[in-house]
Design goal:
By secondary structure, the chain is mostly helical. A hairpin with a 4-residue loop joins strand 1 (about 110-115) and strand 2. The protein folds into two domains: about 5-45; about 65-340, no CATH class. It is built from 17 helices and four strands. The chain has helices at about 5-10, 10-15, 20-45, 65-70, 75-95, 130-140, 155, 170-180, 190-200, 210-220, 230-235, 240-245, 250-255, 265-270, 285-295, 315-320, 325-340, and strands at about 110-115, 120, 180-185, 275-280. The relative contact order is 0.12. This is Carbohydrate sulfotransferase.
Length: about 350
């Protein structure tokens, strides 16, 4: 490729000897220069364009990441809320995280990938993750003809392999997606989430797998003189016994926490992964609508409305903590302290150690 500036620099010589030739060369060089600019303008893709965004004969569209940081398609009030959440999270990470380490594939097992829309979603159990998985199954085509997320059975949303996770990709593919896809997570007040997990896994008769797997162990370790039936069935674990199990140092030495009561910062690593959107369970409908707007799919799928009648609330959590001694309340708070700090949740007023 030639440099048109070289031709322009010789213009006085050509003007003196061959004016017509000079004008022809000048016009040719300028034309080539315009063609070069046009070529690069149409072939260089922005860094934030997701994989799979372009295909033969298909018009390129803005990625969710571009819409978030460069766009004006979403009302400014909710943009300001989410910018504030990002800044608070970054500040908390700087204040409370001393050591930084490199992400490994094991850290990314909860991060679901939507290559078609350029999305990475870290799912947190007991924070509307079933409905978000349903939505992503619709968006990625896994749901087949279903366009209504609620038409997908809840158990099918959790079948391994239905949705790909970031841990399944190569290192270069992981890095590319972390750079160019919009990353989002939904969080919840830590103790409300914990009580919700207890209610679902230990007080529902149909959760026999959890009763056998965890209930029998909790009864054996933390109940004085347990009855043989309780040791066998594990279906009557109290919330106090569940708390004793969580704060017992032997529990985590033996194995990692189950994902339903594992801390969000251990599941989604928010100080290692820069989340662009931090949705909250407390504003679930608003934040979910915002995410679908950013993805440009609000006309294709609607986030399911949640049933508030069975939702674990702060008042309900306070009742469960009523019989927990201040000593164990403090130990439990210390266990979940980082989730409170990173996501800007206040220490619950019902705790007695305050």
């Amino acid at each position: 490729m030639f440099d048109p500036r070289l031709l322009l620099a010789q213009r006085p010589t050509f003007r003196m000897r061959k004016p017509k030739v000079n004008r022809m060369v000048l016009a040719l060089s300028l034309g080539c220069f315009v063609m070069v600019i046009f070529y690069f303008h149409n072939n260089l893709k922005p860094a934030s364009e997701p994989l799979g965004e372009r295909s033969s004969g298909q018009k390129s569209r803005r990625s969710p990441l571009q819409t978030l940081y460069d766009g004006d398609q979403v009302e400014s009030a909710i943009q300001a809320i989410h910018q504030g959440r990002r800044e608070l999270l970054e500040e908390a990470c700087r204040s409370y995280t001393r050591k930084r380490r490199v992400l490994i594939p094991e850290d990314l097992k909860h991060v679901i990938v939507d290559d078609q829309h350029g999305l990475l979603y870290c799912y947190v159990p007991k924070v509307a993750c079933t409905n978000w998985k349903r939505v992503l199954m619709v968006l990625t085509g896994v749901a087949g003809p279903h366009r209504d997320p609620l038409a997908i059975p809840a158990n099918e949303a959790h079948v391994p392999g239905n949705l790909r996770t970031l841990s399944e990709y190569s290192t270069s593919q992981i890095n590319q997606r972390l750079r160019s896809y919009l990353k989002f997570v939904f969080v919840r007040e830590p103790f409300e989430r914990l009580v919700s997990a207890y209610r679902n896994k230990f007080t529902r008769s149909y959760n026999t797998a959890f009763h056998k797997r965890y209930g029998t162990k909790i009864v054996r370790r933390h109940r004085p003189d347990p009855q043989p039936e309780a040791l066998e069935r594990g279906d009557d674990v109290s919330f106090e016994e569940f708390v004793y199990y969580l704060v017992d140092p032997a529990t985590q030495r033996e194995e990692p926490f189950n994902e339903h009561w594992e801390r969000v910062h251990s599941l989604c690593h928010p100080c290692l992964i820069h989340y662009d959107v931090v949705g909250k369970y407390e504003t679930l409908e608003q934040d979910s609508r915002y995410m679908l707007q950013l993805a440009g799919v609000e006309g294709e799928v609607a986030f399911p409305a949640s049933s508030k009648s069975t939702r674990t609330t702060g008042d309900m959590a306070a009742q469960f903590f009523h019989n927990i001694s201040p000593f164990y309340q403090k130990k439990l708070y210390n266990l979940y302290r980082m989730d409170f700090l990173l996501f800007n949740y206040s220490t619950p007023a019902y705790l007695k150690f305050r």
